[in-house]
Amino acid sequence: MTALDEVSLGVVLLIIGGVCTGVQGPMNGRLAISTSGSFSAFLSFALGFWPLLIYFLADTKGGKTVDWPEAARNAPGYAWLGGIFGGLFVLILTLVIHRRGAAITNGIIVVTQLIISVVIDQAGAFQVTQRDCTPLRGGGLACMIVGITLVTLF
Predict the structure, then answer these.
(1) How many CB atoms lie within 10 A of CB 30?
(2) Residue 137 near residue 103 (C-beta atoms within 8 A)
């Protein structure tokens, strides 16, 4: 069992991640006003590369704990391409947030993430644990959709 298996630590990290996501967009959007959306998104990934590299090197003892040939054989091709979606996400967020505002932009993102996550869970796609979209889960999605609609309109 690792420290990340502890529920309380996981929740704290997710909250920190939510704060980071909530702050990143407006910061990138502000830089885009002064420079360009493409530069702001690029810089975001360039700066984000360093903490990720440090964590990767510490976590894998410099990459030595990963069996790279085995990983190449066993990980499906799509599993190596997640960063493309991350890059598109940051670019879109950077381009839109200063035009629509943080609440609307992040609200639509969160609701969309939740909807696609429920679809992925329902299908068991990408080898996640399959979880049915129960009436309560569907009701929760409906509440989120109503909520972002209210935030967007008012």
Answers:
(1) 14
(2) no
Task: Decide: 109 and 93 in contact? Cβ < 8 Å.
Answer: yes
CB 130 within 8 A of CB 103: no
The pLDDT of residue 154 is 87
Element (H, E) at 119: helix 102-123
Rounded to 5 degrees, φ, ψ at 147 are: -60, -45
DSSP symbol at 124: T
Burial 6-24 (b: 16+ CB within 10 A, else e): eeeeeeeeeeeeeeeeeeb
Q: What is the pLDDT of residues 11-38, one digit of tens each?
A: 898 899 999 999 999 999 999 999 999 9
Give every residue of the chain whose pLDDT is below 50, as ranges.
Answer: none
Q: What is the 3-state secondary structure (H, E, C) of 34-93?
A: HCCHHHHHHHHHHHHHHHHHHHHHHHCCCCCCCCHHHHHHHCCHHHHCHHHHHHHHHHHH
Q: Are 92 and 84 in contact (CB under 8 A)?
A: no
Q: Structure pTM? A: 0.82
